[in-house]
Amino acid sequence: MAITYRPKAGRPTRDQAQARDVAMLETALDHFLDLGFERTTIESIARSVGMTKRTLYVRYPDKVALFRAAVGLAIDRFAVSQEQIEATERDDIEETLVAFAWLRIEQVMTPNGLKLQRIINTESHRFPKILAESYEVGAGPSVRFLASVLARETAAGRLAVPEPERAAVVFLSMVVSGPVRTIVIGNQLSRDEIEDRLRYAVRLFLDGARAR
């Protein structure tokens, strides 16, 4: 959605300048999502935000730099805190895994999360680093937390997971990726439908991971 700036007279404050830059990156991300990298132009973005090309080029020397900055902002917003991740832990391992999966899916269900996933789907072949950066910021902390939970459950004899980090990655692929793909391509899923899918997949994962 285009955002037009009408700055007040005088030099903007640091906060105003930062807010203006963030809003401009949000608009740029929309352009890249709607038109793709090739068809998006600096001119169209500048026009949408009420800037001159010269002003925009002062901040970002070319379209690649602007694209990376816009996607970088989306990646930063995609991250959740360690406290949020740890808050998914419950007394029961099944409930922990369901809550953990919901946290991952709800990240994607936000407007920013949807934009980021769609940009990654369409442009990661051109910019492979954005996939790695998104994984490290978005999934990395979650994988490490889940691996620690699986390792602890294994040490207690309730699970038998010899490679916890590998199993955590498999969990994300098995439990989370299916609903995420459905949501990203625009198919509507109710919370009840997502819950049903998650619980089925979590139980299937645990059936394979329990100590025998």
Shape: elongated
What is the CATH fold-level name of the largest domain?
Tetracycline Repressor, domain 2
Q: In DSSP terms, counting alpha (H) and pi (I) runs of 4 or more, how many helices?
A: 10
H/E element order: HHHHHHHHHH
Mean pLDDT: 91
Query: What is the rounded Rg?
Result: 21 Å
What percent strand?
Answer: under 5%
End-to-end CA span: 55 Å
Uncertain spans, ≥5 residues at pLDDT below 50?
Answer: 1-5
User: SS-based structural class?
Assistant: mainly alpha
Keywords:
212 residues, mainly alpha, Arc Repressor Mutant, subunit A, Tetracycline Repressor, domain 2, 2 domains, 0% strand
Detailed description of the structure:
The chain has ten helices and no strands. It is mainly α and 212 residues long. α6 packs antiparallel against α8. The N and C termini lie far apart (55 Å).
